[in-house]
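thread from #wetlab-drylab

HS: before we spend reagent money on co-crystallization trials with 6-O-phosphono-beta-D-glucopyranose, can we at least see a predicted complex? here's what I'd submit
DV: go for it
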Amino acid sequence: MAENSNTWVNPLRDPLDKRLPRIAGPSGMVIFGVTGDLAHKKLLPAIYDLANRGLLPAGFTLVGFGRREWSKQDFEAYVRDAVEAGARTRFQEHVWQRLSEGMQFVTGAFNDDASFDKLAATLAEADEFRGTGGNWAYYLSIPPSNFADVVNQLERTGLAEAPENSWRRVIIEKPFGDNLESAHELNAIVNRVFPESSVYRIDHYLGKETVQNILALRFSNQLFEPLWNANNIDHVQITMAEDIGLGGRAGYYDGIGAARDVIQNHLIQLLALVAMEEPLNFSPRSLRAEKLKVLRATTPVEPLSKTTARGQYTAGWQGSKKVPGLRDEEGFDPNSTTETFAACTLKINSRRWAGVPFYLRTGKRLGRRVTEIALVFKEAPYQPFDEGQTGSLGNNAVVIRIQPDEGVLMRFGSKVPGSTMEVRDVNMDFSYSEAFTEESPEAYERLILDALLEDTSLFPTNAEVERSWEILDPIIEHWHSNGRPDEYEAGTWGPQSADDMLAKDGRVWRRP
Ligand code: BG6
C-alpha cells in the first residue's frame, strides 16, 4: 500500500501469496523518551515481538536517547526487563541476542548540541557497520513541549534529511496539542522539518485488528452496507470504558481530561471508520480522503448543556477493592476539575446519516473495561404481534466489540420455545478467539512495522487531527465556562447527566 517508490520490496515475496509476511527492509529506530511508561510497556515489547516474528531486518538497530548516564549494557538490561514483562510472544535467547547486539544508548538533553552530534555519529556508525542503509525512524514518545527542540536538533545535525535512496521518518505520539490552535502550532513545528509524507502520527486504536475489521465487515459483505444508513439506523453508541483509575498519571492527565485524552483521537477515528463512505481502494490516500470527508461533515449537536455530559469519579468499589476518588489520587490537585468521564452527541451532515445521533462516551473507573460500537436499528415499521408477545423486545443491533472479547454481535428477536408466540431478544455472536487460532498482534507491532514499511494507511493525517479538534473544541470551551464536572462513584457507569443526555431523546446507554 506504499505510495512512494523507495519502499524496500522483499524479493522473496510473491505479491499474491498473503501468507508471506511483510518484512521491514534495512533500518533502525531512535526512541526519544525511551525511559517513559509507554516505551517500557508498549514500544520495547512490540519491537521484540516483531523481531521474534522475523519481521525486522537482520541489522535492525535500536537507539535510546535520554538523560540517564547509561552504558550500552545498562540500556540492554532496561530493554530486556521491559520485554520480559510486556512481550506478547515467547522470550527466545537467540532472538534477544541478535536484537540486543545492535542496541545503543546516547545520553543527553533535548536541547544539547553535543548529545545530538553524538547521536549523529552513532547512526553513521550503524549505517556503516550494521547495514541500516541510512533509513531511520525517530520515535517521539515525549511531551509536545519538547518537539521543537528535538526536531530542530534533527535538522541541525542533518539527521532529518535522507541521503539518496534512503529515508527518514518521524513517528509522533499523542497528544497532538490540546486544542485546534496548539495542534496547528505543533504540526507547523514538525512539518517545517519533515514533509507530511514522512510524519506518522500514532493513534494506537487504528492498529487494533478489530478496528481494521470495521472496514472488512462493512465493505466485503453484502449483508450490512445496504442497511448502514439513516433509513434503518436509529442511533450509534461508541463506548470506551475503562475500569482503571488515574493513579500515577497525574502529570499527563490533570488538566487534560477524558475528552482530549480519548474522544479527540480514538473515538472520533472510530466514528470516521463506521460512518465514512466506501473508499475507492485501500491505499492510504483513498482511505484518508474518505475519513476526512466524513469528519468535515461531523459537528456537535446543540444545545451542549443537554447533549454532552462530563464527570469525575469519587471513591467507590471496583469489584472487591475500595478505590480512591480522583482528587485523592497521588499527584492530582485536590480541587482538580479534570473530567474522567466525557460524553457527547455528534451528527453527520450527509444524506446517509441525516438525523442519526452518534453518542460517544468514555470514562475511567467505570463498571468494566470494554470498547464497542453499537449500531442500534429503528423498530420494525409494523409488528403483527400483540403487545404482550413482544413486550420485552428491544431494537435490533449490530455491535462491533473492539475489546476485550473481540468480535461482532447481532441482536434480533426470536420466538421463545413454547406454545405461545412470545418474541424476545437473542444474540448471535462472532468471536475472534473462536474463529481464528492465531492471536492478534498488538496494535504497536502493526503500527511500528507499517511505519518502517512506509505504509501510512493507519496513521491519521494532520488534517484529520486538526478537524477532530474543531469538532471537540466548542464542547470543551462550553464545559470550561460552566462550572465543575458532575460526580460519579467509581465502579458505576458515569454521572446521572450522561443517562439524562440519552433519556431526553427517549434512549438508553447499553450496559455492556
Ligand atoms: C490511551 C489513553 O491513548 O489509551 C489512556 O491515553 C487509555 O488514558 C489508553 O488508558 C487505553 O488503551 P487500550 O488500548 O488499553 O484501550
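DV: Residues 206-380+462-503 form a domain with the Dihydrodipicolinate Reductase; domain 2 fold (CATH 3.30.360.10).
HS: ok that's useful, forwarding to the group
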